[in-house]
Amino acid sequence: MRTYTKLMKNWQFTGPDGSTAAVDLPHTWNNIDGQDGGNDYWRGTCTYTTQFAAPAYDAATQQVWLQFEGVNATADVTVNGQKVTHHDGGYSTFRADITGILAEQNTLTVAVDNSRNDSVYPQKADFTFYGGIYRDVSLIVVSRDHIALGYLGGCGVQITPTVQGADASVNVKTWVEGEGEVEIELQAADGTVVAQGSGLDADLKIENAHLWNGREDPYLYTCVVRMVKNGTPVDEVRQRFGVRSFSVDAKKGFFLNGKAYPLHGVSRHQDRKGLGNAITREMHDEDMELIKELGANTIRLAHYQHDQYFYDLCDENGMVVWAEIPYISEHMPGGRDNTISQMKELIVQNYNHPSIVCWGVSNEITISTKDKKDMLDNHRVLNDLCHEMDKTRLTTLACYAMCGPFNRVAHITDLVSWNLYLGWYVPGLFLNDLWMDFFHTVYPNRPLGFSEYGAEGMPNLHSSKPRRGDHTEEYQAVYHEYMLECFRRHPWLWATHVWNMFDFAADARDQGGEPGMNHKGLVTFDRKTKKDSFFIYKAWWSNDPFVHICSKRFVDRTESEIEVKVYSNQKTVALYADGQKIGEQTGEHVFTFRLPLSGEVHVKAVAGDRIDEAMFRHVDAPNPDYKLSRASSNSANWV
Question: Record's family (predicted)?
């Protein structure tokens, strides 16, 4: 049976300045300069080197493989001076058989290149392309006769469950390297064997199948595939899967297991403050817990293949997933092969995840594309490829705001969504309603979603009179209040995804907000602060009782009377000031109270057994010449 040994410690990293330092993995070299603005983070080739002892193995009957789960963006791997593999694509798994060149002690060198080029995606986008080895590196010892390790970085097993009344048929395809028989076992969540079969293309049946049913009941089976030679198991792969059906109706939205299941959720970038993409499993866990707290039931994993661990979390927690490749912003004629290879890897490596319902072929590709004919042809090739490789899932893409509804690229995939920031980049929140209504009138049979929408909000910028473009926490909240009501008016949307769940680095950004950052997140980059907008979504989507007073960080006020806004998913909210009840309201989601303000007032909101507290303080208006820095006050905008 196969064994894994991680190679995460004691690497030598030769960086941009040519100096060498000791590092551990995961690691990226743009964790600082890729987050500080200026669009000047270093892009080029850096080198990682480590020494390792050959693992215990029998050269006559076993092989040793190297596995990389994420190296951005191009990797050239050598062992003991011999090149063992080259890989283009910074977000997928790749492997190399190194059995024939192993010595007792070995030198592993990885040249990693994130430089600008015209052939490997992404090259132009509103996020930082961190260079480095930022996911796990492992040695795998496996029998020479084994379930395939060399097939597009996948696990060598493809599981296709189909609901058939109360039962499920499960097709299991297996790719092998070497010789042997394949035996298959399907296990329930408690380990009970529910079906058995054999062969490279086997059909099994689960009676009275327990469905994977989203957030409510994300039930998972396990498929155990064993390779047997001369009656003895020599290799084994275990893959979890879920039994579910889904569909999309242009007039009624998304359906899961035959029932309407409106998809409302968020998009996610994987980076962190000071770390870039070099994040831990604990950080993945924290992201999922925050998304669950919000009440989301779908995640768009933008704009690239994410860590297998996070797809596993989506399976376990019932999140419906849009998975995509980084074919983004600009079509590069020299990058067509790379879009195809990245799509093949995405599908093969993620096929068994029940959470995934659609493959995203591109994002905002019309922003700066010049060769439209070649771009359209590439999209048709990708769309056909997805359907050829996976007949169970839908295809989609995200259109740029300035990509009109008649653009041919918007009508290639099964589904389409738009990235629209009406009410943020352009005035007029009402334009969102008009745009949706127009598209649905012209194309009533075309499923439409909102793949990105949002507004920048910084928890240290505030205003009593928030306005578009001011980057205040208050305007961001007003924007999202409107969008939630807007979506209620358009229940036929197939999915909506907030941009973004978390703030993220975009080193090219220098206008407004903090240089190098996109502050459209509902939670700050370090995951420490939930902005007010987080709680308006929680009020709409979560069933866990809570109450939240908005603008708590906006302590100092110049008005003698202020509005106190409260978010809650409870029907009745009462507000107290210095222990005295000043009002009680019955409603939903948003509750507003007028509060006289003199001196310092302590406020408490009560909804059932949930309580939240805040303090507001009356201050004199500042001198007109007074310049207030973001860092020095909770009220950085005096309006």
Answer: Belongs to the glycosyl hydrolase 2 family.
Length of the chain, please?
639
CATH class of 3-145: mainly beta
Active site residues: 364
Cis peptide before 148 (omega within 30 of 0): no
Burial of 343 (0-12, 13-18, 19+ CB in 10 A): buried
Alpha-carbon dihedral 504, 510, 513, 519, rounded to 10 degrees? -20
Q: What does pTM read for this prediction?
A: 0.96
Backbone phi and psi for residue 373, each to the nearest 5 degrees, phi listed first = -65, -45
The rounded percent of the chain whose pLDDT value lies above 70 is 97
Could you tell me if 577 and 584 are in contact, meaning their C-beta atoms sit under 8 angstroms apart? no
The span from the CA of 446 to the CA of 511, in Å, is: 36
- CATH numeric code, 246-544: 3.20.20.80
530: left (phi over 0), alpha (psi -120 to 50) or beta: beta
Angle between helices 431-442 and 473-488 (to 10 degrees): 30
Q: Are 35 and 503 in contact (CB under 8 A)?
A: no
Amino acid at 302: A
CA 14 – CA 42 distance, rounded (Å): 13
- Helix, strand or coil for residue 455? coil
Question: What number is the average pLDDT over the span 597-615?
Answer: 97
Task: Give the three-class secondary structure for 332.
Answer: coil
Please list the alpha-helical segments (H only) found in 351-492.
372-389, 431-442, 473-488
CA–CA distances in Å: residue 115 to residues 2, 44, 120, 299, 496: 36, 4, 10, 30, 34
Cα–Cα distance, 170 to 240 (Å, whole number):
12
CATH 1.20.1250.10 fits 157-241, yes or no: no
- State the Cα–Cα distance between residues 231 and 225, nearest whole angstrom: 15
* Each residue's pLDDT tens digit, 622-637: 644 433 333 333 333 3
Q: CA-to-CA distance for 535 and 533, rounded, in angstroms?
A: 5
Angle at 635 between CA 631 and CA 639, to 5 degrees: 130
Task: Give 399's contacts (C-beta < 8 A, 6+ positions apart).
Answer: 364, 366, 407, 409, 410, 416, 417, 418, 419, 451
* 635 three-class SS: coil
Burial 170-181 (b: 16+ CB within 10 A, else e): bebbbbbbbebb
Reported as a single tens digit per residue, the pLDDT across 208-267 is 999 999 999 999 999 999 999 999 999 999 999 999 999 999 999 999 999 999 999 999
Q: Per-domain residue ranges for the chain?
A: 3-145, 157-241, 246-544, 556-632
What strands, in cross-sheet order, belong to the sheet with 589-596? 547-549, 561-568, 589-596
Structure tokens at 213: 């049913």
Q: Return all residues near 401 (Cβ < 8 A) that are at least 6 apart.
A: 418, 419, 420, 421, 422, 425
Burial of 541 (0-12, 13-18, 19+ CB in 10 A): middle
How many secondary structure helices (H) and strands (E) does the chain include? 7, 44
CA-to-CA distance for 519 and 471, rounded, in angstroms? 8
Cβ contacts of residue 460 below 8 Å, gap of 6+?
553, 630, 631, 634, 636
Is the CATH number 2.60.40.10 carried by domain 556-632?
A: yes
Domains 3-145 and 246-544 share a fold: no
Token pair for 145: 């006769």
Cβ atoms of residues 170 and 159 within 8 Å: yes
> Tokens in use for 178?
């070497």
